[in-house]
């Protein structure tokens, strides 16, 4: 598995179904599930993780595709970024496809999975702000065939964590049939980890705008007041694209200020400490991404 840690795992189990994988985890509490391994093997190679056993998920065909279910798409946790980036998936959930195509170089996109992005919960995970903006939910498989469903945001925030022996099996995403965008900024040209990312979706049925900002905090942030404000200015019954450019600019600044706020004033009444230059630059980046995302969605 790796030249740096030849004794990292003593047992490797390769179940064929989701329930078999759950049973394997229940039988080996110290085992670690692995799908694409893009984050897990990086941790092993760096010496941060020495799993006693691995439960490989690559042979579980039921979590490697998707299907329609009551106006939603039920996505298998084993979907790779490369698969989600294809045109047929992009027609289904454009913002998630865009995030998948931006996830990194081909070797990462071919191996990395949707479920891994969620469970690893890295702040720079490209799929996470999209799932937050879409208000997706995860279906968790547990012992004895049990299933429970929770919002993705609850899992990322630690409100409801995976219990021993549980696995993320599927992700339920509403099909809005409306414009949605994903944009990200990196510290270099070409694929790379996001310094900031923005996912934005329009929901004409509810006359709403949903936006999530990634990479600037431990989990995606939803600027709810900015969402409500700009939604109130959109002509939902007429030309949605006819919005004053000053509004989109103000929306970007509103989002950025909500996600990267000014420091609180000192309690002793002295002058407030200004934002450091790096935070000011990050705020400007988020503002630009949010402005462009809204403009593209409305166009």
UniProtKB/TrEMBL annotation:
Which InterPro entries does this one have?
CO_DH_flav_C_dom_sf, Diverse_Substr_Oxidored, FAD-bd_PCMH, FAD-bd_PCMH-like_sf, FAD-bd_PCMH_sub1, FAD-bd_PCMH_sub2, Mopterin_DH_FAD-bd
Task: Output the Pfam families linked to this UniProt entry.
Answer: FAD_binding_5
Protein known as: Oxidoreductase
Q: Which domain of life is it from?
A: Bacteria
Give any GO molecular function from the UniProt entry.
Answer: oxidoreductase activity
From which source organism is this entry? Streptomyces violaceusniger
- Per UniProt, which keywords does this protein have? FAD, Flavoprotein, Oxidoreductase
Give every FAD-binding PCMH-type domain span: 4-178
């Amino acid at each position: 598995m790796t030249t740096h840690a030849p004794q990292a795992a003593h047992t490797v189990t390769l179940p064929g179904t989701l329930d078999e994988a759950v049973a394997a985890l229940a039988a080996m509490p110290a085992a670690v599930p692995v799908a694409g391994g893009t984050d897990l093997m990086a941790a092993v190679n760096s010496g941060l993780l020495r799993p006693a056993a691995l439960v490989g998920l690559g042979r579980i065909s039921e979590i490697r595709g998707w299907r329609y279910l009551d106006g939603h798409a039920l996505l298998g946790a084993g979907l790779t970024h490369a698969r989600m980036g294809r045109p047929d998936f992009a027609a289904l959930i454009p913002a998630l496809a865009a995030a998948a195509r931006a996830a990194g170089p081909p070797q990462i996109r071919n191996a990395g999975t949707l479920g891994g992005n969620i469970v690893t919960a890295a702040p720079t995970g490209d799929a996470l702000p999209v799932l937050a903006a879409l208000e997706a939910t995860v279906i968790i498989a547990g012992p004895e065939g049990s299933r429970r469903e929770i919002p993705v945001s609850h899992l990322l925030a630690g409100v409801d964590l995976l219990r021993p022996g549980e696995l993320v099996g599927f992700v339920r995403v509403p099909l809005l049939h409306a414009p949605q965008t994903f944009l990200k900024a990196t510290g270099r040209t070409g694929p790379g980890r996001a310094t900031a990312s923005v996912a934005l979706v329009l929901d004409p049925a509810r006359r709403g705008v949903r936006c999530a900002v990634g990479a600037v905090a431990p989990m995606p942030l939803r600027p709810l007041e900015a969402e409500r404000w700009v939604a109130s200015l959109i002509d939902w019954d007429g030309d949605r694209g006819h919005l004053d450019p000053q509004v989109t600019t103000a929306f970007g600044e509103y989002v950025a200020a909500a996600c990267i706020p000014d420091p609180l004033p000192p309690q002793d009444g002295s002058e407030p400490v200004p934002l450091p230059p790096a935070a000011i630059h990050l705020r400007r980046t988020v503002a630009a991404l949010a402005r462009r995302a809204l403009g593209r969605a409305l166009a």
